[in-house]
Amino acid sequence: MAYSELIKDFSRIRDYMRQFYIYGFRTRDEFDDKSGRSYDNERRRLESWLGEYMSFHQDAGGKVVFLSVDSQEILHNPLYQAFKAKSFTANDIVLHFYLMDILEDHASCSVTEIVELMADQYGSVFSEPLELDESTIRKKLKEYEQIGLVKSEKQGRKLLFSKTKTDVDLTEWKDAIDFFSELEPLGVIGSYILDQTDDSRSFFHYKHHYILHALESEIMYVMLDSISRECTAHIRLFSRRKGKMMEYDIVPLKILISTQNGRSYVLGKNLGDGNYNLYRLDNIKEASCGNPAEDWEMLLKAGEEYLKYHWNTSAGRNAALEHLEMILNIEPWAGHILQRLEKEGKHGSVEPLGNHQYKYAVDVYDTGEMLPWIRTFIGRIVSLRCTNKVIEKQFYDDLEQMYAMYGGDDHVV
Amino acid sequence: MLFSEIYGNYFRTMEKVLKEAVQGTLTEQKLQEIVERQGFEESRLHIPKSLKTQTWPLIDETYNTPLHHKPEMALTILEKRWMKALLEDPKMKLFGLSGKGLEDVEPLFRRDTIVYFDQQRGGDPFEDASYIRHFSTILQAFREKRKLRIEFLSTSKGILHRWDCVPHRLEYSLKDDKFRLMTRRKKYVDTINLSTITACSLLEPYDAEDENFEIEKKQVVLELTDERNALERIMLHFSHLQKETKRLDRSRYRIRLTYNQQDETEILIRIMSFGPMVKVVEPESFVQLMRERLINQKQL
Questions:
Q1: Mean per-residue pLDDT for B121-137?
Q2: Under CATH, which number does the domain A90-163 receive?
Q3: Has domain B217-294 been given CATH number 3.30.70?
């Protein structure tokens, strides 16, 4: 099939975008599970959609193409562009504008009337007009009714179609949509709305702004739809632990999003083994909404209970609580450190010990998840004690390794 | 349906082309301009050709169209459901919207369905009347390109400051759940937390040249050893920064990160959080900052 910058489905390009954006060090030959031609086509598409963010460098293995975005400097998530590249037929685009035009003139029309009006108004203008039969138009109207662009009502035996009107003042909403389209799940929908406004001004910037979630939008949509309808969902995902594709039926209950790396998860009860799990959305390749779930409210309560002692997303090996205590040295002038401890320490407690020392204590399922946060206090950690001795040892071993790394030849550390 | 051509660039581009054609102002040059501005890089090859060959019989050879009305698409159900979901967000109070026109719409999701599990506690008071007032004034200043007079309490010493400044950037962090205002006074850039502002008023318009200002950027180079899934974790963690990665051998990588100069301490502790999996190799001044923290730690 001839190359086009438009695509029929999103799954293939999703992998490439992720590779180019997150890793960005692989040459063409290293995309080993893809053919060279496939690589060339997908790279060309990304250059067409996101040219200004594509960069490359040459290394020993060849040319390395990567996507580089300083998200503090951008006003809009560039990855949304990929969602605006859906392919279509000539009939789709022509019929869209014909239908919108006819229904603007005629408040309500039957399919037969629409066919006649199209032939009258547009057919004579062009030497080779499109042949749009009644069934094609009926199918399109049905699709547009589901989307909400047209509505129908029965009048006698006739089904009459009319154009939907929007009662929302988009001028009033512009700034809000602009802002939330960068933050909210499914922000790509906000981006679609912005494309329909003529005001391109934007006043917001974002710090700690992770944009990759855009690529999970289709999966996120199925999960949110299943949750709002209290339904089960079928997911097909790549299990890193098992190294293969797995399929599960789950009851999705919550969406968990990290503000510190942008990863999204769905909390679901696995209907196979009965366990609650967090499934990473970027591992899910396909998802579909299933049937109404039994006892949904009860499952939700149990799911919330399950999350209570998570530090991040791990329940540890056996969902048993581990206790951690850390004593920090915080001088009176370093009040911001104490504030950080209180704001970032989740359900843990902070207790002053005197002599500028504070004890932070917490119970969580997996203290291993806390290590990165604990290391941000390096320079102030008087002691660290943990019921999981492996984690305690890991912390001190890592510290020794860092002393060696930064000690230099004269071992100043 | 989330991934649909009706939301696509080609449909939006044709909407703009047809608006011109309906009012009789479309020319070949204007068509090219719209496609170049609105479409993708290669759309400039496909759209004019599809119109010229009448594969899409929407405009004739004289750039007129048989359509009678400027095309306009109503909001879809999906779009309205997403907007309805926004109304439950406390930050929505900042925009003073009522939800008129969405009364019969089911929200796409509920606020309590989404959990930002590592967001800091103590975000801004988005529903506080004076916070909302200050936010509106600041937004108006950006819209009208006007200077601001701001009074705020410094977070460290609690001293009241009063500044006349050019608003440079209104920035929100989801991690901190806070708005910050970056302001300029002469060549200095200062950042003020919106929650510390006690008074805010509009002043005269600022000069156009005041807009041409770039925040100072710095770079740090890291060497990473891919143990304990460090490669993926670091790449994701710093994915919001401009970065370039090179592979050194099977498990070692060199990463160059570009960051705002005023965020240096934050970048430092975030690198520190990866422990021995990552080592700062350049610049020496940054290596020294890492070393100082480790020396302090060793002395405890």
A1: 97
A2: 1.10.10.10
A3: yes
- Of the candidates A22, A163, A217, the beta carbon closest to that of B235 is on A22
Of B58, B83, B113, the CB nearest to A227: B113
Lowest mean pLDDT among A122-131, A225-234, B35-44, B97-106: A122-131
A322-407: what fold? Alpha-Beta Plaits (3.30.70)
What is the mean pLDDT of the segment spanning B95-114? 94
- Give tens-digit pLDDT for B217-265: 999 999 999 988 899 999 999 999 999 999 999 899 999 999 999 899 9
From A218, which residue of chain B is nearest by alpha-carbon distance?
B2
B41 touches chain A (CB under 8 A): yes
**For A15-24, B35-44, B52-61, which range has the lowest pLDDT when averaged over its residues?**
A15-24
> What is the interface size between A and B, counted as CB pairs within 8 Å?
358
Chain B: residue whose CA lies nearest to A91 = B56
Q: Do B101 and A168 touch (CB under 8 A)?
A: yes
In the predicted model, residues of chain A with pLDDT beneath 50 are: none
Secondary element (H or E) of residue B242: strand B242-247
What is the least distance, in Å, from the CA of B162 to any CA of chain A?
23
Q: Where are the domains of chain B?
A: 77-113, 129-211, 217-294
In B, which residues are within 8 Å of A71 by CB distance?
240-241
CATH level 2 (architecture), domain B129-211: Roll (2.30)
Within 10 angstroms of residue B138's Cβ, the number of other Cβ atoms is 23
Of A101, A98, A169, A188, give the one whose Cα is nearest residue A137. A98
Q: Do A398 and B275 touch (CB under 8 A)?
A: yes
What is the residue-wise DSSP string for A274-314? --EEEEEGGGEEEEEEEEEPTTHHHHHHHHHHHHTT-SSS-
DSSP assignment letter at A21? I
Which of A65, A355, A402 would best serve as a mutation to test chain B binding (most B beta carbons within 10 A)?
Answer: A402
C-alpha B70/C-alpha B233 separation (Å) is 49
Largest CA distance in chain B: 82
Q: Do A258 and B143 touch (CB under 8 A)?
A: no
Contact A101 B95 (CB under 8 A): no
Residues 6+ apart with CB under 8 A from B186: none
Query: How far is C-alpha A135 from the chain's CA centre?
Result: 37
The answer, for B119 touching chain A at a CB cutoff of 8 Å, is yes
B173-231 pLDDT tens trace: 999 999 999 998 877 788 999 999 999 999 999 987 767 777 889 999 999 999 888 99
Query: Does the structure show a pLDDT above 80 at B156?
Result: no
Residues 160-219 of B with CB under 8 A from A: 169-176, 180
